[in-house]
Amino acid sequence: MPSSTLPDRLVGVNLKMYFDAPSTTSYITAITKLFAPPASISTGVFILPSYPCLASASDLLDMTPQIILGAQNCHSEDSGAHTSEVSPLMLKQVGCRIVCLGHAERRRAPFNETDEVIATKVKAVVRNGMIPLVCIGEKSQSRIMSEGVGLAIRECSPQILSVLRAVQGDVPIIFAYEPVWAIGAQEPASADHVLAVVQDLKDLVSTLHERAEIRILYGGSAKPGTWRTLKQGLDGLFLGRFAHDVGNFERVVREVEES
Ligand SMILES: O=C[C@H](O)COP(=O)(O)O
Asked: What span, in angstroms and rounded, lies between the C-alpha atoms of 199 and 63?
């Protein structure tokens, strides 16, 4: 995938901190076997392992460049006195092409990352030639039931606008719409809700970034079957637990590929 071009459809999996090093190796090895040449897919497939496994994951993915390696976060500076932080420059150097930013698990305590902090990281990722995958989403489900999608739009709009204002020109950006209340649940948010929110967010983006390469994915307890209900309004899925089983991940990728 050229760094300036996003596939129309994307399916990615965030391993979060669920996997140890040997299980990360086994998982990625199994994925490479599924999608290695001569198999060809047009869907962009990406995997976000933990930092310590990125270099070895990059080696494992060497022969399957259609699978995109990404990181789960980064610092906003390329180098300096930032003990324990991870440089976006180094992520690029070890083979990352995507960096996830502003995940709900980073926006909440104890990290409390703000839109401003996330915007500086977006700039750093773009500066280093990688693609930011920015997670957005409203916190509360109960209020949604009384207020419709208006609350979701009000919470997500500044999250999106701060990113769009941080970058100049037609750079690729991926947004993952993840209602916070749907992360780590048994079922994803309803298709009606997701499609309504994402349509409004697309309208918002198009007023500001007409030419930008922007994709909007859904995340939050997505699993096999979820795509069928969302495919008319979304550009793909951002998966967690239910794709930590290789067979489930393959099923989701095939569902997206065949739609
Ligand atoms: O990063 C992925 C999302 O937070 C979704 O995770 P989940 O599918 O385990 O809810």
From this structure: 37
